[in-house]
């Protein structure tokens, strides 16, 4: 790699500037500062009330806020609060949206939000449906363990596992260490959900370089309250939610408890076993809070939540199989035409083998049918729980010190099998994950001058994967399925004169080669972060505000792994003597079954016993050439399933000092119109990992830190007496050494498999350069009587500027003379639609005193995108839009509400192909009824 002295000097100077800014901020920490008191904050709110009459009721409930943090939004009643003679519609919804818009109007970064009131109207509590209602943020369509979150087209890493997210999630000021926790949880009692786009970190929490999703829930209060909701619907859906809260000791101790139970059958039944449905829901969530206020200067919020083990057969647990296209996209030099696919090497070709044709009730037609027809499947299991303590100490009227301490765990176990009527893979197999995280943050918010606000603090984090493993359990059909065409022809030869005759020894070897064999790759990861951050906001004039922030963090990443045999199954005698640094005790032979010279006496004796077991001869030397070739083929089948075994190996650790920083300015053209501009720099730590092995053991494949420079220019408008709120932002983000899941070509495994397809090992890697650029728009409109409209949309161009060694997709596979990699530079990132948006509308009309008719519609749309990290052209989705509707009647001034809920009203097909020969169906229409009530 070349090094430019001028570039090095510029980076050094840049880092010195960030350090200087950080130290300047931290120097303010011990200084006594004059500050506004809570009354002054209320006066500021009162000024806003004078300007916006419609906010008075909501802001009066909001209370004081610490500098740099949003004022809490009071919970609206569960039913629309429109009244006779008032054409505002749902006032609680309007107030919540308006308060959020006013708070974000001068924010020097691109931020969008959705309110809890809006989510409750559609009974939305899972992470994917929540973030899809916010502009330019998406989640991958997988089970929680492989979930990833992407903003502006960046961050999708389907199957990411241990990869630290580029887009972070924080719930009540506690960051999640992995996206799986975010995707698993159901979110109850939500106040607001916001997405901050671009690098973050100078304001606290865990630093992220692509964006952050911030979820705030409602705090306990000293006002008694009780709410409950029940939803019943198609596919045996039952959702029950209850919230109870109020004082335990007046003005000292309050509580809030939220409980949710959600269960539903999936839309797809298993023809072979009706006890389970695919894409079912089985989740229970309990969240308890205590608010302690021993004095006006001290407040403590304690939170505990638990999602006990649930069992779901979810979206990545199956995909319908398709017949591979007849040709590849590369040109066969021998014919000058697109190369033909050798179906003998394809899954459909394997099912045509005589072994599988013994079953007359299952064929290739069943294998490729768009239906579930499988044996031996288990649900995936998930669980998470956590606790946090947030203590606020008011040191001076406008100086608040916070201590935020948190712990959380997560567990997952996959239950998948072969997804067919055969058992080449035996359930439960797949990924098992256990994870724990601890974090501690000290945060100081202050206003040393009327024009200057400050935030600074320290952050510590520890994330541990004590077990991240991949288990493969092989069944009785494994030998026949995984044998290469040449190996299968040797082990199940066909005599043209006796076409129904079978070779008993060959069949026995096919059966035993991998039956009951269990292999496991087990990894352990330890991640540590120590960081200091500082952020200053200066009102340079009545119109101009300048912001600057910096963060310096020390990051360490450790990893170790091993790959071993957990159970030998029925044919330990077919093991080689050793694989890499793992001694197995078998004997060695070549592909033709000829013993190698390095076998000792014990290995030769084992070879003799193996000859007796399968061919009824006393010694290995008594075997015919054909019999030795059969043993060589069976040992080859088993060796391919063993793969690269290795003893516990330590990866090269990652250690680095990372810098995050931002500079921004906002200028008020008028009281209603503001322009903002910003530059942000973010860095994401590298990775320590073991990928594959050599004779010396596991191979370390380090990954460098990811860096991004982000630029934004935007305008914020609140006009028409606050009936129109709009925000538009243009952005460009340049990533260097972008980290994403990729695949490393494994020539040894490719040779062992012998199926004509390149074999890869999943790994994390660096893409040299990525760019995301586009425009984002957020609009809220209240000008139509009784109606609220909110739109969030974006145009995004996210592409690889340089990706010269991308793994080939299926259509470039086979014996492609170009090799196992191709140049994907210029290609759009996976999961990144050019156009995306969400339109929400609420119409609430008072038909009589205490009675409100309401109709709510949500339309989410996106253009097509590539749904596979290998960028297969076959995985491009079609553009689609999903419409949800809620229509109901509120009674008793918001104390009771009944509504009809319809999701995917038009039953739009949002299916996709995850590879060139697989298909995943979409989620069909669902209809239900929701009852809600409060005291």
How does the SSE layout of this entry go?
Elements: H1 5-26, H2 38-51, H3 56-62, H4 91-105, E1 111-115, H5 116-121, H6 127-131, E2 137-139, E3 149-151, E4 167-171, E5 174-175, H7 179-184, E6 190-197, E7 211-217, E8 225-233, E9 237-249, E10 253-264, E11 268-269, E12 277-278, E13 281-295, E14 298-312, E15 320-321, E16 327-332, E17 337-340, H8 347-351, H9 354-357, H10 364-367, E18 380-396, E19 399-413, E20 430-449, E21 452-473, H11 478-482, H12 485-491, H13 504-512, E22 518-539, E23 544-567, E24 578-579, E25 582-583, H14 601-615, H15 625-642, E26 646-650, E27 654-668, E28 673-684, E29 690-694, E30 697-700, E31 706-719, E32 724-745, H16 747-753, E33 760-781, E34 787-802, E35 806-807, E36 821-822, E37 835-848, E38 851-862, E39 880-891, E40 896-903, E41 912-915, E42 918-920, E43 926-934
Parallel strand pairs: 4-7
Antiparallel strand pairs: 1-6, 2-3, 4-5, 6-7, 8-9, 8-43, 9-10, 10-13, 11-12, 13-14, 14-18, 15-42, 16-17, 18-19, 19-20, 20-21, 21-22, 22-23, 23-26, 23-27, 24-25, 27-28, 28-31, 29-30, 31-32, 32-33, 33-34, 34-37, 35-36, 37-38, 38-39, 39-40, 40-43, 41-42
Summarize the structure.
The chain is built from 16 helices and 43 strands. It has 935 residues and is of the alpha+beta class.
């Amino acid at each position: 790699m070349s090094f430019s002295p001028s570039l090095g000097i510029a980076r050094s100077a840049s880092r010195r500037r960030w350090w200087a800014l950080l130290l300047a901020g931290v120097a303010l920490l011990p200084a006594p500062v004059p500050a506004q008191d809570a009354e002054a904050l209320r006066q500021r709110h009162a000024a806003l009330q004078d300007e916006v009459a419609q906010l008075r009721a909501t802001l009066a409930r909001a209370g004081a806020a610490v500098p740099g943090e949003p004022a809490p939004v009071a919970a609206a009643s569960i039913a629309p609060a429109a009244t006779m003679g008032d054409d505002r519609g749902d006032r609680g919804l309007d107030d919540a949206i308006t308060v959020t818009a006013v708070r974000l109007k001068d924010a020097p970064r691109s931020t969008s939000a959705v309110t809890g009131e809006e989510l409750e109207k559609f009974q939305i509590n899972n992470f994917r449906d929540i973030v899809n209602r916010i502009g330019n943020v998406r989640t991958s369509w997988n089970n929680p363990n492989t979930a990833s979150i992407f903003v502006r087209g960046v961050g999708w890493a389907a199957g990411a596992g241990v990869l630290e997210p580029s887009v972070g999630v924080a719930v009540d000021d506690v960051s999640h260490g992995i996206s799986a926790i975010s995707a698993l949880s159901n979110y109850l009692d939500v106040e607001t959900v916001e997405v901050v786009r671009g690098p973050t970190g100078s304001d606290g929490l865990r630093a992220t370089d692509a964006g952050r999703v911030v979820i705030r829930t409602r705090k306990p209060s000293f006002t008694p309250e009780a709410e409950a909701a029940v939803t019943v619907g198609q596919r045996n859906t039952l959702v029950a939610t209850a919230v109870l809260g109020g004082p335990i000791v007046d003005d000292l101790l309050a509580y809030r408890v939220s409980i949710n139970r959600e269960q539903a059958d999936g839309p797809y039944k298993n023809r072979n076993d009706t006890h389970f449905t695919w894409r079912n829901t089985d989740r229970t969530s309990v969240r308890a809070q205590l608010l302690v206020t021993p004095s006006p200067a001290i407040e403590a919020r304690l939170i505990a939540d638990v999602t006990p083990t649930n069992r779901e057969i979810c979206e990545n647990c199956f995909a319908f199989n398709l017949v591979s296209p007849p040709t590849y996209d590369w040109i066969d030099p021998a014919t000058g035409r697109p190369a033909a696919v050798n179906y003998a090497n394809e899954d459909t070709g394997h099912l045509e083998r005589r072994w599988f044709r013994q079953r007359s009730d299952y064929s290739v037609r069943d294998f490729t049918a768009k239906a579930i027809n499988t044996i031996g499947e288990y649900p995936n299991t998930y669980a998470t729980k956590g606790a946090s303590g947030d203590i606020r100490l008011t040191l001076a009227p406008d100086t608040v010190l916070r201590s935020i301490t948190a712990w959380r765990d997560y567990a997952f176990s996959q239950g998948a099998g072969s997804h067919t009527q055969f058992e080449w893979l035996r359930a439960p197999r797949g990924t098992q994950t256990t994870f724990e995280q601890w974090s501690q943050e000290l945060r100081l918010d202050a206003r040393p001058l009327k024009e200057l606000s400050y935030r600074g603090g320290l952050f510590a984090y520890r994330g541990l994967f004590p077990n991240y493993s991949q288990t493969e359990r092989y069944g009785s059909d494994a030998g026949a399925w995984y044998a290469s065409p040449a190996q299968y022809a040797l082990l199940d030869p066909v005599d043209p004169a006796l076409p129904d005759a079978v070779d008993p020894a060959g069949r026995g070897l096919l059966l035993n080669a991998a039956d009951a064999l269990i292999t496991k790759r087990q990894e352990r990861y330890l991640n540590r972060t120590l960081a200091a951050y500082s952020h200053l906001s200066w009102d340079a004039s009545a119109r101009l505000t300048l912001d600057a922030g910096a963060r310096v963090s020390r990051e360490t990443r450790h990893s170790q792994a091993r790959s071993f045999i957990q159970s030998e199954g029925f044919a330990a005698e077919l093991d080689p003597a050793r694989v890499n640094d793992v001694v197995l005790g078998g004997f060695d032979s070549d592909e033709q079954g000829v013993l190698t010279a390095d076998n000792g006496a014990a290995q030769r004796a084992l070879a003799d016993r193996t000859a007796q077991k399968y061919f009824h001869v006393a010694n290995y030397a008594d075997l015919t050439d054909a019999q030795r070739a059969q043993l060589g083929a069976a040992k080859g089948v088993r060796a391919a399933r063993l793969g690269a075994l290795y003893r516990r190996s330590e990866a090269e650790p990652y250690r680095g000092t990372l810098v995050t920083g931002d500079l921004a300015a906002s200028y008020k053209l008028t009281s209603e119109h503001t322009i903002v501009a910003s530059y942000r720099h973010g860095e994401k730590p590298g990775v320590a990992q073991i990928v594959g092995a050599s004779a010396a053991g596991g191979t370390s494949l380090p990954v460098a830190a990811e860096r991004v420079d982000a630029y934004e220019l935007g305008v914020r408008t609140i006009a028409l007496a606050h009936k129109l709120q709009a925000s538009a932002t243009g952005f460009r983000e340049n990533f260097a050494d972008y980290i994403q899941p990729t695949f490393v070509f494994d020539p040894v495994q490719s040779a062992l498999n012998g199926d004509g397809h390149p074999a890869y090992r999943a790994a994390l890697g660096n893409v040299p350069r990525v760019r995301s650029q586009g425009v984002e728009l957020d609009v809220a409109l209240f000008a139509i009587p009784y109606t609220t409209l909110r739109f969030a949309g974006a145009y995004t161009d996210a592409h690889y500027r340089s990706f010269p060694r991308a793994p080939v997709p299926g259509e470039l596979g086979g014996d492609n003379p170009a090799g196992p990699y191709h140049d994907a530079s210029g290609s759009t990132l996976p999961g990144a639609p050019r156009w995306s948006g969400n339109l929400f509308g609420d119409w609430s009309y008072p038909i009589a005193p205490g009675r409100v008719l309401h109709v709510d519609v949500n339309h989410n749309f996106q253009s097509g995108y590539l749904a596979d990290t290998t960028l297969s052209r076959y995985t491009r989705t079609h553009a689609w839009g999903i419409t949800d509707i809620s229509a109901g009647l509120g009674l008793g001034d918001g104390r009771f509400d009944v509504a009809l809920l319809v999701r995917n009203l038009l039953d739009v097909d949002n299916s996709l192909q995850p590879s060139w020969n697989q298909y995943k169906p979409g989620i069909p229409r669902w209809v239900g009824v929701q009852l809600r009530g409060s005291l």
